[in-house]
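Cross-check.
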Amino acid sequence: MTGEELQAIYDLLFDDHERGTMTNESETETTLLARLNAAARRHQRGERIRVPAVPAAQAVGAIHEHEKDGFCGNGRIPPRRHDEVTAPFGGRPWMQTYAGNCVPLVGTSPDDIRWYDINSHLSFSNRFAGAAGAYSVAQHSCIVADMLPGYWRAYGLLHDAHEAYIGDITQPAVGGMEAHLVGGGVKEAIRALKETLDRAIFTKAGLTYPMPTDIKEGVHTADMRVLMTEKRDLMGPGPYPWGARYEHAAPLPEKIIRWAPLRAQGEFFDRLRRFGIV
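Predicted model, tokenized:
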């Protein structure tokens, strides 16, 4: 079965979620996998199918298991092929994604971006280099998005999406690199890399880039408030303050509870849908 065919089933699954019918919390993942396999075989025969109604996070977990078990034939969703055997992208640096796609990190285009890659990577990438425990960038992004009004939420959801490709480079790490590199330039290089990826990601999402000033300020304010809430709720008491740049932001009144990675995937994908990105 091709990645595109499984993607069609994946999309149908979340269409049910959008209609509010994914409510069967009791269905086991094993049962779901069996039903998805049956649906896939019917799909291959050209039949119109209805996929099982299940919770979003459980559905994502099932797709994740299918990939590992070779359900799509080559374990890729969706596959992207590059014919170059050596020096792909003309020798430019590139990375391979979880789904097997190749993304150049110089001259990145919207066509190189896959939402499945971003969702998977962010859901399994921890904030603060793991200093907040198993707390994902995807969950952080969802919380930031939910603080914002209207169409600003899409910008909030994707404000750290570049980290799907380069990870969460912490500010202390950037300062350490600057201190070790004679002549500096680290901050500028990282900023340029993020901008390259952000331009491709936001263009893929149909959003204006650079962010309009008012939206950028709103996202930044929400980001700082969530950051200070994460510091309060997910880290041990620190010996020193983080500085005025961060400490001025008021933490949220609600306590953050960590999501499991598969829940983070479901929540992030749900917002991609609701915000009109996919």
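The chain has two domains: 3-68, 94-274. The longest helix spans residues 213-234. Passed to J.P. for a second look.
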